[in-house]
UniProtKB/TrEMBL annotation:
Residues 4-69 form the Polymerase/histidinol phosphatase N-terminal domain. InterPro entries: PHP_dom, PHP_domain, Pol/His_phosphatase_N, Pol/histidinol_Pase-like. This is PHP domain-containing protein. The lineage of its organism: Bacteria, Bacillati, Bacillota, Clostridia, Eubacteriales. It comes from Irregularibacter muris. GO terms for molecular function: 5'-3' DNA exonuclease activity; 5'-3' RNA exonuclease activity. Pfam families: PHP. It comes from the Bacteria.
Amino acid sequence: MGFIDLHVHTLASDGLFTPQEVVQWAYKKNLKAIAITDHDTTDGIEKAIITGKQLGVEVIPGIEINTDYNGLEVHILGYYIDYRANWFQELLKNIRHARQIRAKKMVEKLQNLGLHIDLDEVEKLAGDASIGRPHIARILQKHNYVQSIKEAFDKYINNTGPAYVERYKITPCEAIKTIIDCGGVPVLAHPGLIGNLSIVKELVDCDLQGIEVYHSKHNPETTNLYFHIAKQYNLIITGGTDCHGHLYGGQPILGSLNIDESLLHELKKRKDILE
Ligand code: AMP
Ligand code: FE
Ligand code: FE
Ligand code: ZN
């Protein structure tokens, strides 16, 4: 029996580890497989696959697309996407471009609130990555405007915060369709954080294939609830820590949910059916 983690971020989006470091941690933690699921980018996948081959850790190519469902933020995971497809990369490029424009607007709002941070610094921190609010939060923390990333969100940049700016998002159904069109398996990420049950049926009608039942922020009740919903709609069950590379007692949360590798077999079966 082996354990896996199907939801992991790298420096390519808002994670803190390079793809190589993520795989090294997976190896140290004796994981059989991990999926790289960065926000709106696949740039971390190839490097992770190479390191995975060296260390004997299976790396599944994935993505997490942040979408908008009537004002609610809904994240769709895609597994086994053909990330080399040109049209797919073009779409992701457009989404990332919108992120850059939105980061600029958010920095301006923060400046208007009297906080002295500049866009260059945020962009430099993000580097080639898909730029997001966590990068802004880290700069706020660096300049001691907040003591933690959480405080940055709570005080300034969560969805109701004074410096929040909407960004361009596709709908969950569009994300599901996109993932299927590039050969992937679409899965609803951390539904417990959305708190809207009716969305599942609607997404099943647009061809959703799975639900992330196991997630670091799901409590036992939520896990149980979505387990049964997955069964009801014949959806596959996935799970992952959503590790962003933060250390707790010197360790990232990667692999800490002890997700059984049998879930990966079911994911592969579903991929084969869709082909
Ligand atoms: P963005 O995609 O730029 O809107 O940023 C969303 C990302 O910010 C999420 O994927 C999380 O990594 C992070 N995030 C969202 N809310 C919080 C929060 N309250 N505390 C810490 N990180 C958060
Ligand atoms: Fe994130
Ligand atoms: Fe997410
Ligand atoms: Zn995530």
